[in-house]
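Appendix C reproduces, verbatim, an entry submitted by the partner laboratory led by Prof. M.T., so that reviewers can inspect both the input and the predicted structure.
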Amino acid sequence: MPVANQPTVVGRGLGGELRELRQARKLAQRRVAMRLGWQPSKLSRMETGIQGIRVEDVASLLVVYGVTGDERKRLLGMAERSAESGWWEQIGGLSEESRTLIRLEAEASGIVNWEPLLIPGLLQTPDYAKAVMRGGGVPEDEAQARVAARLGRQAVLSRAEPPRLHALLDEAVLRRVVGDRQVMARQLRHLAEAADRPHVALRVVPLAVGAHTGLDGSFALLDFPRNRSVVYLDHKLSGLFLEEAPQVSYFRGEADRLARMALSPAESARLVARVATEHERE
């Protein structure tokens, strides 16, 4: 099975920011660890994301690094969310790529998701997600874990300060019957409700556009307060993370091109509601 390209993605997030703070102050790991009475290996594991990071440990490090004010508040908030979101480590059957994506979504400030075939995972209902797994031939026990993980990911949209989500869909996603028509109707009603949130934007590329640049696959583009942006490409057997500037720039351009072809948010919402009604009537 191919191994996903994850050059530095795994070491991102809170651990990566703490590492950058230490390096900016030209402090060796051993020196910082000694000052706090830790083993040097503890700080190394925290910075590389191997070990979970407790809020009190982050507070201690920020004292050593002299971080105060809004930056201190932001980093402590990241630590609190990290402690809350470690749920995915307890779920079996998830690939390392899936676990990494969940970690990245938890720290993202903005997410652009293009989907030509399915409702984005962050906006799927339980019944729709189950139908997707069933249709893909996923074994029942594994499907349950993957559906639980998919629903758990959605918690990021309910945080006090959620990431901005720009969901771009092909109209075919709305019309493809996944499960049955009642499942689809409920899914589209859920999609319309999600689009009413101030931090969620929904745009639909209509079928009338014909062939377009997004038909060759989905992608997610994640932006962060400090770290470089990341593009995630999903596949049946593997996932690929891209973070080189030209790669990210290319997919940002793709998202812009798709947005220019898409209906406005208001027009998209009306189309979603209309197709939901069609599913309910048939």
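The beta strands are 110-115, 164-170, 200-205, 219-223, 230-234, 239-242. Additional entries are available on request from the coordinating office.
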